[in-house]
Structure formats: C-alpha cells, structure tokens
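Dear support,

I submitted the protein below through the web form. The confirmation email said the job was done, but the results page showed an empty box. After a refresh the structure appeared. I'm attaching both so you can tell me whether what I see now is the final result or a partial one.
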Amino acid sequence: MFEGKVPPESGPFRVQYLEANGLANLDQARLWLDEVLGGLPPVPVELVENGSADRARALTGPEAHERWSTIRRDMPAEVLETIADQLEGAVTSAVAAFNFLEDHPLREEAHKVVHRTAAVRGGLLGCKIGLKGESLESECPVDLSHLRWGFSPGIVADFVCNICSSPIEDCDHIAGTTYVAVAGRFGKVCSLCHSATCDHVEGEVYSIEAVSYATAIRSEEVSVVERPLYPLARAAAFTLPRPPSQVELVAVETGTLECNACLGPCRGMKTFAEWQAGSGDDEAS
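What the results page shows now:
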C-alpha cells in the first residue's frame, strides 16, 4: 500500500491515473539508472541492454554473477555506497511503473526497464536471500514483479474534514470548496493535509480546499485479486517452498546467499489463474 488519493475503480479517470503515475515512475527509473551508469566505468552492454522478455542472453545467472562480482570488486566502496540509494530507487520506480502500466501499450517497455534496473542493482549491490523462521525468504524485485496479482483489502475507516477535523457526517464544509483554516495537528499528522512532513506551520492561517481524510483505518479482510484497486498493493516478499540446506544456512549467515534471478533470462509471468490453480508453492506476503 502507499500514501495518496484513492484511485478511481474504473472509467477514464482511472486510465488517466494509471498512465500518469506509470509514466512518472518510468521516467524516474530511467533517469536514476542513466545517472548511475554515467558515473561508472563501462558496464558490459549485454548485461544491461538485453533486459527484456524476448532476450536470449548468452550468460546464465551464475556466469553473470561472476562477471558482476569482478566489476564490484574493482569499484571503490564509497562509489557503491553513493549510488546504492539511486539504484534502489530506480528498481522501486521501475516495478511501480510496470504495475501502473499493466494494461498500457508501454507495458513491455516498463517490463524491460524492470530487468535493466534490477540487473544493475543486483549486479552491483547483490540481491540477498534471508531467513524467515525456518524458511528462506526473498525480496527479489524481478521475481515479485512477475507475480501478476495483488491484494484487495476490505477496509473500514472513519472520515474527517481537513478544515474542522470533525467527522465528515457532522461537517458542513463542501468538498472542493476553498476555505480559510488554521493549521493544527491531527494525531501525528497535519490537520490540513494529513502529512507527517509538510510546510504548514501550526497556528498559521491558510486558504485550502476542503477534502475528507480516512482515519482509524482497519483492515477486515484481504483478498487476492488479478487487478488490485491500488496497483502497488502487491507481494513484498516470498518464502521458498522447501527447508534450507545446511550449505544455504551457512551462506545466509555469511551474507553470501543471493538470488541472481535478475541476472538471468526472464522466466515469464505467473498469472492470477496460475496462482489460483496452485502452479507454484511459493508463499507470498
């Protein structure tokens, strides 16, 4: 889930919402990736440019991992530290773009950018596998973005007016109308914009549009759906369907167990229908 306005359920405004957010994230992912690559020694083109569904990459995952390990060893630690946030941001934006543009003509382009950003991020920073209880857990952005289903929470919430902080049913302010209001605090957030970090000064007067905000949000149940209302309501991690071997446990403890899915060819999508049919045993959360 993410902060922001609730997207429309359907219709032209939802199409506009998905496209606008998708294009913004796609541009941001490309920008950060270009900035990272522009400040690095030449990176083998085949490891970056062939990140698409129809690629036939010559290198397998382990071979690509070895080549990236060599590049990583030759790079100063301070350089890797400097670009880490940009790489993480580029991957996050690329995956978001893919989810927003799932039914858009630019879907495949977003898919390619997921592979490109993840390949560089995984190659330079690694994609670690950890332990959750007695299972191996992965947060691999490539594997997770290729699970083409998401979550639809049944949410119950109270709605308050941002002008007077009263329950919306007890308020006379008209949504969309501009009023003069004094900034205050509503719990840990600003009473006017409901942001934890904003420029509104408590006690100062502002002209602001009346809107309602959800508070005391409670999730009654969560369903798995093919197209979530929130395009980013997706699996954040998955556990492997088998207990780890002793070798894997040692590798986890030393931080050397990596996924490498982002360094190999695309293995295709897992659709909602395939998930329903139980074609895979991985447990996502």
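Response: this is the final, complete result; the empty box was a page-load delay. Residues 12-149+226-284 form one domain.
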